[in-house]
Amino acid sequence: MPKTKIDLAKEYKSYYTAKTTPGIVEIEEGKFLSIEGKGAPGSDEFQARVSALYSLAYGIKMLMKKEGKDFTVAKLEGLWWVDSDKPWYEVPREEWGWKLLIRQPDFVTPEIVEKARKEVIKKKKIELVNEVRFEKMKEGKCVQILHIGPYSTEPESIAKMEKLMEEKNLIKNGLHHEIYLVMAYPRKVPDEKLKTILRQPVREKG
């Protein structure tokens, strides 16, 4: 009987689902590979760190496949911030800080990650893989929306999220979070077909 491949988008369906109108959700704890950096999305540093993250993610997948626990590598995600009081979209892209993430199945352990890390460095000689961390993240209560279209029009969707936050007496309680369901990198996808979940951890005022 063939082993089934786990699809994380189905396994954690509520995590990878959002509507085109803003809503309030409760996000569970998950395990993630992560790497931090600074600069414009698409810059050489950004591409190199995305590559290191995916190299380790696929290294873990290959190890697990040998153990009969195959899974699809999950979607790329990003936490974004700026060292400024201005909204991030008013700050030059070169000054953006980010943490890129790829969710892992619950059965992945620190030992598995380290074993895969050694193999990837040995075979692919990608030293940046040493900067990839394995961590848990739980955002709890969040406001989110599915943004369809170019990244440049995200402020329109964020404005809808902020309106809902105001109505419900909620304030930010964490970093701006994006999950790239259909992304522009590495294949060229028309702007109007991009799909991104925008998520903002929140808490009640006061």
Unreliable sequence segments: none
- How many discrete structural domains? 1
DSSP, total strands: 9
What is the helix/strand order? HEEHEEHEEHEEE
Shape: globular
**pLDDT averaged over residues:** 94
Percent of sequence in beta strands: 25-35%
What's the name of the CATH homologous superfamily? Regulatory factor, effector binding domain
Class from helix and strand fractions = alpha+beta
Radius of gyration: 18 Å
* CATH level-1 class: Alpha Beta
CATH architectural designation: Alpha-Beta Barrel
Q: What is the helical fraction, as a range of percent?
A: 25-40%
Distance separating the two termini:
56 Å
Main pleated sheet: 9 strands, antiparallel
Could you name the CATH topology? Answer: Multidrug-efflux Transporter 1 Regulator Bmrr, Chain A
**Alpha plus pi helix count:** 4
